[in-house]
Amino acid sequence: MTTKTPSPRKGGANRGGASDTSDAIPLRYGDDPYVWACWLYYEDGMTQGEIADAMGVSRATVNSYLADAREKGIVHISLEPARLASLTIAQELKRHFGLMDCLVVPSDDNARPLIDRLGVAAAQALPKLLKSGDTLAVAWGRTVLSVGEHADIAALQDMTVVQATGGTTATFAYTPELCAAAIAQSVSARCVNITAPAIVKSPAMRTMLLDEPLLQEQFQTLGRANRMLFGISSLRPNSTIHTSGFFESVSLQHYLAAGAVGVVAGRFIDERGRPVAGPLDDRTVGISLDMLRKIDTRILVAGGFDKVPALLAALRGGYANVLITDAATGHGILRADGVTSLDARLSQKPKVAQAPSSYRTHVKKFLNNPNQVVEEMLDGVVRAHTDYLQQINGSNRALVARNGPRSGKVGLVIGGGTGHEPCFLGYVGKGLADAVAVGNIFSSPPPDPIVQCAAAASGGEGVLFVYGNYAGDVMNFEMAAEIAEEKGIKVRTVLTTDDIASSPVEDREGRRGVAGNFFIFKIAGAACDRGLTLEACEAVTRKANLRTYTVGVALEPCAMPQTRRHNFEIGPDDMEIGMGIHGEPGVTRERIKSADEITDSIMDNIFKEMKAAPGDRVAVLVNSFGGTPMMELYILFRRVAQRLEAKNIRIEANWIGHYCTSLDMVGASISILHLDQELTELLRHPCETAFLRIN
Questions:
Q1: Would you say 651 and 674 are in contact if contact means Cβ atoms under 8 Å apart?
Q2: Catalytic site positions
Q3: C-alpha 150: how far from its chain's center?
Q4: How many helices (H) and strands (E) does the chain have?
Q5: Per-residue model confidence as pLDDT tens digits over 619-645
Q6: Rounded to two decimals, what is the model's pTM?
Q7: Where are the beta strands (DSSP E) in 232-382?
């Protein structure tokens, strides 16, 4: 059968299991569960979860059937020849010219005009190239207008589309104004026009116009563009530039004599992509070639064999880093630039994909006795951080800050299970938590060490308990609070509920406490250290909790030390949205997306609740679940910063790294603390712990 190509698989799957489904297999599949599973996946397009439900087996078994079917030769992966050729050409264009990306439309029977096919292709590509908060500069032309006519992207927010050149009074449908308006409408963006002619009578007129405050403001917007969409015109007699009337006030012969082969946004270039000087240079109102090169994503959409010289010039000049064209044009560009090996590659038969021959069932870890992992870890913690922590009554399960508790100060006690390091024990020290109670992996500490922590942290003004909203923690901390009250220690409690994915906003009190604990602990510790009353410490901690918003995403599950197996499965092309910190599955499962798309989804959900206004301030935490490297966390933070900047929200402080983990889970969470003046001052308050120092 001819099939789509599934993505490479990760992780393991249980093998076999055919006999479990033999009685339920529909007649048309015979008695072969492999054929059944493959048909549902490749022909009916069902997900592995849907197939598992239909077959009455686990997702792991379905995964195994699909892998085994490829190994046994039941399924062969192949691609339509025309599409394979397009992919090969796109890959070579990307490599040869160092492009960020390239999309090549397959050749067809000319049933549809090339401009329409390019417009459809670019419209489908735009959601991957545009992000909320972008400023998109738009040039003019028939292909650009076709993109606007076919695109419809409703999910973007805070978008701005700005005209890349001045306007024209021409009657054709693809003027700069109409192109910008069409693109703006298709992406639900604010449209900023350049309210001046594209070509004026004299350099003096251009200078005078650019001195106008309105034009200066419009050009400032153009200068902020981080994306640009443009076409290109050749200088052949049948090209758009000759028929549009756009340059009717000047002869093009000067530019042709000087070697010009194309026009980009009203600017002429030669075969090497160099600007061609001429009489229009000082009379053109619009983006310059230097400005264009500085834009991050430069999307060139054009096709037709007559445009090969112009497209090659634009690529040589570095004016585009994303190219959308057709197969014939792409092949022509490569041939024109001396790429001669492509024909042989295009004639090769597609390779049959091979599945891995073996599957790993256990995760490698640095362990001695898995049953002693918590005690050995805590022994290492106490040895490593003697300047900050010490045992209470000789127990590693109750630790107190060496420079935290003092007379006349409210004590702060935090706690929870292990597996989240550096949370919770990493935030014990001067100016932050006074003591921490430690449980087993993903398990609440029992009441006794919590009571010991309360006694050690008490300075006569009461103790504040702050911990995550989990049933075991609530039960044990409440029992400990009752015992502490009997001992004469006044206790107040704040549950952290920052995980907005775990419950709807109307059930805010039922949400889990996750990585936002970091901010809430910090505010509570500062309030206690400043000498506020127990009631005041409780109030400001509750405010911090209500203004903290977190969403987590996991790509791979974690593995418990005792089993060294993943505690649930995530498909090779899936991700879990709304992860907690105890290794449990997320709230929903979706197909994996790019880093920016994931971040946008998180930020969109946070913005729905945060209700921040322009000029507001926030603190940001991009937290690894344990298996995600700093490189990827910085990519996520970059997008968070862009989204906040688009709303004119200032980042007062940020932290990126491992702050509240879930063993070795691959994933990350984003937490936003919506600041006011009081919270800002407490966030800045000095603290010194093993993992957090603010001076």
A1: no
A2: 420, 582
A3: 26
A4: 23, 25
A5: 999 999 999 999 999 999 999 999 999
A6: 0.66
A7: 233-234, 260-264, 267-270, 297-301, 322-326
